[in-house]
Amino acid sequence: MTKPMPISVRFPRRRALLAGVATVACSVGFFGVSAFLGKQDAANASEQTAERQGPPPAPVIVADTVETVLAPRAEAPGSAVSIADSVIAAATTAQVTWVAEIGEEIEEGEVLARLDPSNAELALSDARAEVKRLVARAEYLEKLVERYEGLGRETGESEAALDEVRSNYGEAVGALERGRVAARRAQLDLDRTEIRAPFTGKVAGRSVQVGEFANVGAPIVRLVDTERLEVTARASADMLMSVKAGDRIPVAYEDQQAEGIVRAVLPVGDEITRTLEVRVSLSETGWPIGAPVRVMLPSASPRRAVAAPRDALVLRNDGAVVFKVNDDGSAVRVPVRLGAADGDLIELIGEIDAGERVVVRGAERLRDGQAVEIKPATPNS
Fold this sequence. Notes:
By secondary structure, this protein is of the alpha+beta class. The protein has 4 helices and 23 strands. The protein has helices spanning 7-10, 12-53, 118-155, 159-191; strands at 58-64, 66-70, 73-82, 85-89, 94-99, 105-106, 111-115, 194-196, 201-206, 213-214, 219-224, 229-236, 248-253, 256-266, 275-281, 292-298, 303-309, 314-316, 319-325, 331-342, 345-350, 357-361, 372-374. The strands form 5 sheets. It has a 6-stranded antiparallel beta sheet with strand order 2-17-21-20-19-18, with no helix packed on it. It has a 6-stranded antiparallel beta barrel with strand order 3-12-15-14-13-16. A 4-stranded antiparallel beta sheet has the order 4-11-9-6, with no helix packed on it. The termini are far apart.
């Protein structure tokens, strides 16, 4: 019996093909592993390089410190008051027929309230009639005096009769003047039945209602000028020693700040609080009447100081710091003490000089020595 031939002998081409496939597979696997290991080594190298280089530069906005004149200031509580705040009263006696509504704005010279003019009109008519009567009598006596003076020279009228006629004429002239005064007074009473605003303002209160009877001096409405304001504040004499009329001082209300001008320091102290009053004029601020304000009074003489914007401050548990940017682009942490302030500027006391760059945006997360990238300031920054 004949033995079967081995597979390698029967299929020589298949054997060669399998060997080639195995060789290719080994090559692909080798190069794949090599490529993977190469990528891994590159990633590890990149990570090591990043670790050596540190985090990327932090974007910040900077401002220069400046040398300026500042004065330490102390706050004094005060209130915003109106320059014109009046209770308008009735100047004649009559019944109220109309009153302006609370909150209504009234221009200077416009009517605030009206009173019944009936009695005033009657009084004026009576006074005018009396004036007419007195005019007629004065004219009659004037002609009588002229007649007596002419007849006296011709008929020899006595001086006594002439003097009597002259006296009567003088009394008539005086009565006429009094009558004219009474007529003007009656006209004034009639005019006063229309109560007019002495200045432009808003009605802040009404003391009477339509139909009520108002006597002379009775309060009718409260009128307040809400546009022209000033501040009244009280402070100790020591705080006001360096304050004089004309000084410009900051005044704050909530988060708003305005510049005021000292109008007067009243040299009259309060016996209980031992304080003096200062009046500060304000421009148009829109603050409400009665608003609680803070007046920044100078507590010492002005001095030269290094200052920076308040936004440069980073307040931490161990105190205030600023971050100064060096020429190499690194941020250096500088502890500072705070001194006098003026508006947005505040005095920095520490290892910092005028003209140095400090971070005003982006300082909250900076570390000492961290690299920074300076960005341009924008209107909203």
